[in-house]
Protein: LD-carboxypeptidase
Amino acid sequence: MKIAVVAPSSRFSEEAAARVEAIAAERFAGVEIVFHPQCFFRHNHFAGTDEARAHALVTVANDPGFDAVWFARGGYGAGRIAEAAIAALGPAARDKAYLGYSDAGFLLAGLYRAGFPDVAHGPMPQDALRDGGEAAVERALAWLTRRDPASLEGGLEPGERHAAFNIAVLGAIVGTPLEPDLAGHVLLLEDVSEYAYRTDRALGHLTAQRGIRAVAGLRLGRVSDVPPNDPDFGESEEEIARFWCARAGIEWLGRADIGHDAANKVVPFGSL
Amino acid sequence: MKIAVVAPSSRFSEEAAARVEAIAAERFAGVEIVFHPQCFFRHNHFAGTDEARAHALVTVANDPGFDAVWFARGGYGAGRIAEAAIAALGPAARDKAYLGYSDAGFLLAGLYRAGFPDVAHGPMPQDALRDGGEAAVERALAWLTRRDPASLEGGLEPGERHAAFNIAVLGAIVGTPLEPDLAGHVLLLEDVSEYAYRTDRALGHLTAQRGIRAVAGLRLGRVSDVPPNDPDFGESEEEIARFWCARAGIEWLGRADIGHDAANKVVPFGSL
Structure:
């Protein structure tokens, strides 16, 4: 079992990589995690130039020697390379799993749209640096190596299709060539570090999209590190989500166990 | 000449209203500015509930006694009421001018889409509180009362069609029932208080939309109060806009004299 890590978005760190390697060595015998050198590149905001990030992703994805591609972290940058990188993927790329969340959602979206069968929203190597982040890394590795059902978000139902995204990231995907067909899917959403008025605006935008109105329903994960709204917004994130679901005719299906935190569970795209 | 002011977004203030009234009394004899009482309502983040804001807008727009509707300020909230309010507008509403920018862009978009002939992006009463804001208010009133060509953005060309928006606001409009047909238009964009990575993400999203790819070209206004990116983003707002225009095949037409500041010029939607 060989897992490649690449960093399509923001700069990654040797420290996070070392923690992930230590966890894998201690608890996942026989699993080899290969951090592509690009993970430690730096170009302004990004883990290397667009060309370097795309090249690393395409190289490991097309390499039949790897069983999975694990996105190192979010931040920002995957959307700049996703379309071109996915267009360069061959048959070997379809035989592996892809795991990430947050800004990696640009890639999850494009890969799922392109028919890749094994795409999932879940913890990334960078989560090793969170308080309690070891559990997140173990959860991700348990899913990547043996599809451990304990890694899955608890409300996923066999026979239903699912997708999960960060709200701001999905807002930047809709209407672009990366937008997947989510008709009939249960859509799980989470967000972090957004003012309440922005979450309201983003959900208004999303729930007005024709493609999003076709989902089977919406579940809201954690919305964390919300800066104080001045004046107070007066509605919780759940009230905001219910408001827009009701207006859009989207079924409100309750909360979800995903978020920008160590408890973030795995959501495979499509059916279980 | 009678101008109605309503506040479809965030809370407005008596102080700004008083300054606008003083400017009008001193320099615009015969112009009556009527601040609808709703301007001073408060409901959480907003200048009154959705119902109150929509009702005030519909009332003054449908009142043949007013020549113009001037949006008091931006912030956030117009997108929650725009679709329903515009659907409630009758023939008298088409005979008047509408002026605003920032969050008021939700209304400019929907009104222009609905075929309203006299919709413009430009200063609002709240700008009276800016340093040098008196000039912005005068510029707006000169346009509202006598279509003063000196109020116009300097690069507008007769025979061309134009539209202007805040980047984040237009990003929340595309794909919704408020999105106007901007094919063949010169699109002027500005933004404020966004991290460089967010402007990059927002322009990536916008320039990937089918509707936006149909514009005649893009001009970039001021992008101000940009919080420091950590690490430095390494590209100016102009480099970011040029990057996405080049990738999307949208013609880059240079800078524009609009922005969240006292120098913000008027951009009538459509042809001059």
